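User: Predict structure, ligand 4-fluoro-L-phenylalanine.
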Amino acid sequence: MTMSTSIHGMWSSRFAFILAASGSAVGLGNIWRFPYTAGEYGGGAFVLVYLLCVAAIGIPIMMAEVMLGRRGRQSPINTMRTLAQAQQSPVFWQLVGWLGILSGFLILSFYSVVGGWTLAYTLYSGLGSFSGIDAEGSAQVFSALTNNPWQLLLWHSVFMVMIAGVVARGVASGLEQAVRFLMPALFVLLLAMVAYAATEPRAFVQGLDYMFRPDFAEFQGRAGEAILSAMGQAFFSLSLGMGAIMMYGSYLSSQASITQNVVIIAGMDTLVALLSGLAIFPIVLATGLEPGSGPGLIFQTLPIAFGQMPGGQLFAVVFFVLLLVAAWTSAISLLEPLTAWLVENRDWSRPVAAITGAVLIWLLGIACLLSLNVWSDVTLFGKGFFDLFDYLTSNVLLPVGGVLIAIFSGWVLSRHISVAELIGRDTLGYRIWRFLIRYISPLCVTIVFLNAIGLI
Ligand code: PFF
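Assistant: Predicted complex:
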């Protein structure tokens, strides 16, 4: 029953898959979300828990997602249904795909608003707005943007058009081209930012200390919440639990090694997150900013560095363009599963499917951007839409999706299929994967959930 290709197209090479999947993983989650979430929980201890989650839960689940996608070769809903049927299991498993569509919707609605910020900041950089700026000035630029619903709407709309444009063109011509050059460029630029941060050795050492010296006292009475957030950040950053990586796996050739590719992708993702922290925390600490100041953190700190460094204006433009690209290549993967499903089940053309999805998400995005200003007092569970969608997807929906994927791969899918897909032989490495996916991921996620809601 396995198909060797997908009706939506295939990656032109294994390298194209690595680029596209890292394009999905590396995004605002690494450069925008990681530093401010780590900052909220005091740095080092959070980073340590995050790294453990990536290694013990993230990598095995990413392998599982790629494996299921490649085996099913359809959108996550149909892939899960087909694979479940082949195992004589209930079609209930397609719920994983549906949950994924919901997560993609919610994530993209706020992600696109932040993508819009990067567009605005590219423009500000080009206009030289950051030259000589101090912490206060930088905070003002940011709040002037987020308090202005019309500006936010404009940038959010441009960003959504960019995403729909690529997804409408399809896998090979759209997605692949977008990531080929821009990912390596982003990497080089981040290294340059870290090198710049290192020119102030005192601040840099402080930054290193902040990020890598675990001080569990920082969790003070909120360890459950901190661990849940670190785990949620791992799911978000690796694009796991919603079928994006499953979708990309469905375009991967049957010959490519899943394990090797996944280790490369997760490694790059983690490296980019750590580099972002190293670029940002020295500035945060040196300028007396508050690491836990929330989603505005990088937008308020990096302009200070750009404003002071020689050639900072050009550097800033390049940086925000690359951040925009990183956001773009991730956002594409959020829209792809829904688009593929509409093409498969509704028989729509790809452009119609992509544009319909984008319009619906655009509408939901308006609620997110209004929650930053005119609707700031409309709250649900004590949070506005923007914060609520952010919290709910990373900390609840993605881990739930991830655990269902783990249980399906470890307990439902027959052993000989996972052996064949992952490695070909029943090796020690395979057994470790199977142990992690059957026991560790489901148990850890359950314990973290129960603990966070105060049941244990
Ligand atoms: N991994 C992306 C980032 O770090 O920005 C965000 C993301 C993309 C999350 C795709 C989930 C997803 F399915």
